[in-house]
């Protein structure tokens, strides 16, 4: 049962992020909830690549044959972290523009203003 | 080792709703930074040091910084809009 | 649709989505039972083939270097998007001071001294992390972001003018574009010798040395340069109006 805890945590964080986006009253809060949603994929990728008794895949001080965790999944996670930061940067600049044009950052009021 | 992993996974599961439920962006900046640190701890315990370094720098520093800069810019825009309204 | 209706609809959706997650995860191996063949294959050969001890960075910049090229261009494109969205519009109110921006923040002595000490240390640390990407955890991206937070530390130590001078330096734009283009150029240089794009064509050196693993080290430094420049340009685009106001106020 504890073996599947990581998958349950990934689904739990994903659903909470989705809840935050759906019930948000502030666009900046929505962007942060999107970032939380993206972190659920980190948990899932970590759980897939983990090996019990494995150590970090850095062979600077250990011999080459020792069991390590999967390095490919960590490379995917690195790309994921970068993409999270860039998506958040672009979305936040769009939020600033929305505030400049419409005068508010409440998603409900934005819809009304668009007509 | 298993106990440590379960504990840090539960920490992540508890902190994520904490970030979502802080509705005010100014409060959310602090909780997001803390959540980034907890995630980096999780990466470290799961033997992923590269990703932990990335997450510390991006999730605990850069992302809250960008949110704070956004809030600053929006506050200036609102100030300017109110000054315009007062002039008319 | 009111907020209460939306929440109810969302809860109904979760009632359907959560079982879908459980059903989707049912055939995954339990955590810790790693079966995948690619991980075993790469960890056996990466150190011998590429003379790089950090297998994650060897995968990032060599085995899957094309994906990292795409990732760097995602970073470049999004910063370009932010710059476009924040470009100076015609009705920037010139000459109107909205808020008083001071030359030096009134910070406590502890913060000032601590941040001043940290700034130099962080520059060295960031350069170390970026340069040793092929040997130890870290690499270009992580070192670049550490370097990009140094102006913040300078700002926190109370010195606003230096922060603005660092962030407004035209070298940051050159660094960002040079880094992004440099990655593609390094890949294209491999093609000059008849090899495929992004082949590791530089001499591989001795495992454990600083100048080892061929293009991995060079690409790592290039990525670090791009990330530093990119985040500094991003910071400047957010603070552009404030900086320009101060410069006008001084004239």
Q: Note poorly predicted spans of chain A.
A: none
Q: How is the biggest beta sheet of chain A arranged?
A: none
Regarding quaternary structure, how should these chains be classified? Answer: heterotrimer
Order of helices and strands of chain A, N to C? HHHH
Could you say which structural class the secondary elements and strand pairing of chain A correspond to?
mainly alpha
Measured by DSSP, the beta-strand proportion of chain A falls in under 5%
Total number of distinct structural domains of chain B: 1
Tally the helices of chain B: what do you get?
A: 3
Number of helices of chain A: 4
Q: What name does CATH use for the topology of chain A?
A: Helix Hairpins
Query: Taking all residues together, what is the mean pLDDT of chain B?
Result: 92
> Strand-residue fraction of chain B?
under 5%
Number of domains of chain A: 1
Q: What is the C-alpha radius of gyration of chain B, as a whole number of Å?
A: 18 Å
Radius of gyration of chain A: 19 Å
Mean pLDDT of chain A: 89
Major sheet description of chain B: none
Helicity range of the residues of chain A?
Answer: over 70%
How would the global form of chain A be characterised? elongated
**CATH level 1 name of chain A:** Mainly Alpha
Q: How does CATH name the architecture of chain A?
A: Orthogonal Bundle
